[in-house]
Amino acid sequence: MLMPPAALPAQKTGAWRDHLAYTQGADVLVQGEQVICATAAGLIFFDGEVEKISKVNGLSAVGLTAALYDAPSGYIFVGYDNGSIDVLHSANLRKIRQGGQTGTLEAWKNFATHGRKGINRFLRVDDLIFVATNAQVLELRNEEIRANYYIDRSNDTLAVQDIALLGSSIAAATPKGLYVADKNSSTRYNATGWRHELPGSNVISLAVADGTLYALQADGTLQATTDLQSFTQKGSYPTPRALSVAGGELWVATATTLHNVDNPQKNISSYGGGLTSFSPRRVAAYKSGICIADAELGLVVNATGAFAQALPNSPMKNQAAALSEHGGKIVAAAAGTLSILESKGAWTGCASSQITGVNAVKINPKNPAEIFVATPSGVTTFNGASLSGTGLSGSDIRGMSFDPDGNLFAFASNSAAPIRQRNADGSWSALSSSALQSKPLGSAALANNVFWGIAEPNSLYLYSPGINPADPDDDKASVCKVAVGSDETFSVGNIYALASDRNGAIWLGTDEGVIVYSMVGDPFADAPQGQRIKIPTEIPGYAAYLLQYEDVTAIAVDGGNRKWLGTRNAGVFLQSDDGVEQLHAFNAQNSPLPSNNIRDIAVNSQTGEVIFATDKGMVGFYSDATAGKLNFDEVKVFPNPVRPNMSTVTITNLVEDASVKITDVSGNLVFFATANGGTITWDVQNLNGRRVATGVYLIFLADQTGKESKVVKLLVIN
């Protein structure tokens, strides 16, 4: 696999980072020595080295479906499944792949028409770019949509699956056959100007080679024509995907084989070289070989006789179902794969059929090389080198959590032995509980030596292993409905997420927003009562409840005890430690988030990076909170010196909730605050909101007890 170096650059507070998987290849093209591959996550550029562009650094979305390098303008056109079109400006490909200026055409995405509007193919014709979409044909001139029109007289939203030029005729592939129009005639702007050929066939792909148009049908039939009126069958290819012309040769991509139509001896049915997957889509000529957009491997290149992946470093899949963090290490689990991001390192991973699905994933705090994945068929263990099953085979494990001593408790749903404990020697014990037996048990978290979990769909289960986890006689367990104070009319339909905070409170994400259980008294003595958080509104005397109209699907607590709340449809919200104040609100419209559907959230306790797992991939945001240290020995101030174009200073590796004061050399106070866990940021402004003058500044650090302290110097240059 061709990948960039593992070392990743440090990021400043407020920066975003791409953790997308570039394995879902959709289109590939070659310009000189450059290969450009469109994947669902973004663009891959390859010329012996691999670079990438995503929504984090230049693109407008995820879900890329087509790409075109337009030599006359030097632009790259990128199409998306939502109907957007990006235009990357530059006559220099290197500038483009380093994040060149991007324009976005959203007129078609927002156009009032029925049906899907995804972009399927681009075609340069004279001074126009023809665009095949799932509803109409578009014509672009430079960066403007010059025209859009239907091509079928009876179906306004007929999908145009591919488009090609033969002589002066435009050919459009549709589920109803082939449609043909004269590129030089204005009649093409009306459906009556399109002639219908191959009626009754579903044409999925087109290609032109040596004066012949080839049309691939969904049933695998390959048709050929030189006049767009008479057609000859040129073969049948089961499970077809797309046609490509590479080096003058016609290729048919199917689910199992890359067929060379003119020379079957060149057929390819596997890549070899350790690449076990094989899912080709489109092909382009590259040097003396070919390059392939593969639906499972991303970009595959064969320039020297051997196939190899050309991928940026990334997790194995975009569909992560659960995240876990410990000591700066992040784990993302998806069905069939486990991806691991070491602190300040690169992604590694492995694939396994043992991960039949993912309910939860946990890192062993006593041995971080050991990772446990809860699946519908048991628990799979990763020991740093390989994956293996456990003795819980056949159990639907949905909740897992470690106690302070490093014992792992797993909760089996609808089981006669619902509690499973992993012992110090690695063996598992099954514990009975009449209260939890045969109950639908879900996610679990520990607070004050009590495991709290979701008893689906709208109840909670509580379990305490007592003083001696090995002795079942002092265990306690119960199940209770979610209740809010004395409000008997309030109810929730579903609980989606659960987390414990630094104060031992339990936070629930439900279809009615957020509910908090404070740890007061014995939760087994009386049914615990939660509360909703009131948020002040602009109307005096009125208040709303926190995210009361959202499905809250993920909750994570950062080093400052602040709450990151993920939703099904509205993105992510960062709330203050008590939940009342909103500090950030990120969604797919105002940030690099790939989607507003948040599956899980994990906070890197060492760097402050918050990883968001969405249904379309993962990205990270560098927040201003980290876990606190025991002393100030490792304090870091970045940047130092602060230059004129820099507006934020980050001070990290602090003692938890440290007191921070900044003065000039004369002792005048310019800033004071309390750290968010182990980190604080300063906007380089004084107490009056003005940027401080050039000079040396002193940063005074102290813990809450006054036992630990330190002074650090900082230079500001204006």
Helical fraction: under 10%
Low-pLDDT sequence parts: 1-9
What does the radius of gyration come to? 29 Å
The name CATH uses for the topology of one domain is: Methylamine Dehydrogenase, Chain H
Total beta strand runs: 64
| Helical segment count | 1
How does the helix and strand content classify structurally? mainly beta
- In CATH, the homologous superfamily of one domain goes by the name YVTN repeat-like/Quinoprotein amine dehydrogenase
Mean pLDDT value:
92
Topology:
Elements (H helix, E strand, L loop, with lengths): L15 E4 L5 E7 L2 E6 L3 E4 L3 E4 L10 E7 L4 E6 L4 E4 L4 H5 L4 E4 L13 E7 L2 E6 L3 E5 L2 E6 L12 E5 L2 E6 L2 E6 L12 E3 L5 E7 L2 E6 L3 E5 L6 E5 L3 E7 L2 E6 L3 E3 L19 E7 L2 E6 L3 E5 L5 E2 L12 E5 L2 E6 L2 E5 L5 E5 L8 E4 L7 E5 L2 E5 L4 E2 L8 E6 L5 E5 L6 E4 L5 E4 L9 E7 L2 E6 L3 E6 L11 E6 L13 E6 L5 E5 L2 E5 L13 E2 L1 E3 L6 E3 L6 E6 L5 E5 L4 E4 L6 E5 L11 E6 L5 E6 L2 E6 L13 E3 L10 E4 L6 E6 L4 E6 L5 E3 L12 E8 L6 E8 L2
Antiparallel strand pairs: 1-57, 2-3, 3-4, 4-5, 6-7, 7-8, 8-9, 10-11, 11-12, 12-13, 14-15, 15-16, 16-17, 18-19, 19-20, 20-21, 22-23, 23-24, 25-26, 26-27, 27-28, 29-30, 30-31, 31-32, 33-34, 34-35, 35-36, 37-38, 38-39, 39-40, 41-42, 42-43, 43-44, 45-46, 46-47, 47-48, 49-50, 51-52, 52-53, 53-54, ...
Structural features:
718 residues; mainly beta; Thrombin, subunit H; Immunoglobulin-like; 4-stranded antiparallel β-sheet; disordered N terminus
